[in-house]
Specification:
360 residues; 6-stranded mixed sheet; 21 strands; 5-stranded antiparallel sheet; alpha+beta; single chain
């Protein structure tokens, strides 16, 4: 189910002008605070009305200024998950979930109530009220309520922003399940690199109300010219499979023929994973290094080099069909005489791959 957005909107002194098309999956609107992320998602929800443009989901037009089409929010069949869960405090979890079903159109298809409860792990919470739940539990219930309204698309506006790190780690796997098991596209707002790397199938990067880049997650995050990503987000997103767990506490992954060792993960052999490797954790060498502690050394080809305004530079590499990004100094680029097409070796310490950088 394709999402099409082409809108122009003036909000006081701020101008929003964004156009992109995203396939099914999780489309993450990514950018710094004030870049226009929430403005886009509110326009899709119908909470604000762009001055002109067109928005369509799965071929159904939600707004089109040229033809005068404008569906009000309650007719768009969109589920919205906010930063705060917004549950009814006087209702049990079960009644909050049932409230969502009141908005499901007759004959609308979607996951059954029992499946939603199972997917979100909220079966033991049904008799409790929101005040007795943790932040992560409340958000899972809010997601369940939104899904039971049988939406054609799920909107999530920084749903983890109000949670601590432990609660974020708790809820991310549930969003991964929604992405992988349900045929419901998700438009997800975030400025957190870990969330983007774990969840996104498509990324739209916003900057000052405009679209800086849009495309598959692996390509956008490894693009050295997409500066709004920032130092913590830029890097590789590798699709890999667990091929071994070793006795010394590391797991071995295969990413298109590229073998990677990382701290041991729980999923069994054969499980597909996504791994985010930050650009600042990758070193380069012009000859194969020997006698070093780093466990991962990859042969790679330089594809692109972007010099920063300061002392840094970003080098995009191709290794085993994967795009990898390395953040080094401009001096290193000059000293190593790096250029496009050059063969180099990328070096990655296994322990630099954090636990939250590995997802389903």
């Amino acid at each position: 189910m394709t999402l099409e957005i082409d809108i122009h909107q003036t909000l006081g002194a701020f101008t929003l002008e964004v156009a992109f098309t995203a396939p099914a999956g999780v489309t993450v609107l990514f950018g710094r605070s004030g870049s226009g992320k929430t403005s886009v998602i509110n326009a899709v929800a119908g909470l604000t009305r762009p001055d002109r443009g067109r928005i369509a989901v799965g071929g159904e037009v939600l707004m089109d200024s040229d033809t005068g089409v404008w569906l009000p929010p309650h007719k768009r069949r969109l589920g919205y998950v906010f930063q705060d869960a917004r549950l009814f405090p006087h209702m049990s979890v079960a009644r909050n979930l049932d409230y969502g079903t009141r908005f499901a159109p007759p004959g609308a298809t979607g996951p059954a109530r029992d499946r939603v409860i199972e997917m979100l792990g909220i079966g033991a919470l049904l008799t409790r009220r929101p005040g007795a739940l943790s932040g992560g539990e409340r958000q899972r219930v809010a997601i369940g309520r939104a899904l039971l309204s049988r939406p054609r698309m799920l909107l999530a506006d920084e749903p983890l922003a109000a949670l601590d790190e432990d609660r974020k780690a708790e809820i991310l796997p549930y969003f991964e399940r929604l992405r992988d098991e349900l045929d419901i596209p998700i438009l997800y707002v975030s400025h957190a690199a870990a969330e983007v790397a774990r969840l996104a199938t498509t990324i739209a990067v916003l900057e000052d109300g405009g679209l800086r880049a849009a495309g598959p997650a692996g390509e956008v995050m490894a693009d050295p010219r997409v500066t709004p990503l920032g130092p913590g987000a830029a890097g590789a997103v590798l699709e890999a499979t667990v091929i071994a767990h070793h006795d010394d506490g590391v797991s071995e992954l295969d990413a298109g023929g590229l073998r990677i060792l990382i701290p041991r993960v729980a999923p069994p052999v054969g499980t597909p994973l996504r791994v985010h490797i930050e650009a600042q954790d990758v070193m380069l060498a012009t000859t194969r290094p020997e006698g070093i502690s780093a466990l991962n050394v990859f042969e790679a080809t330089v594809r692109d080099i972007r010099m920063g305004d300061g002392p840094g530079a970003l080098v995009q590499l191709s290794a085993g069909g994967n795009l990898i990004l390395a953040r080094i100094t401009r001096r290193s680029v000059a000293t190593m005489n790096l250029r496009e097409g050059q063969q180099v070796f990328a070096v990655l310490k296994a322990v630099s791959v954090a636990r939250d950088a590995v997802g389903a």
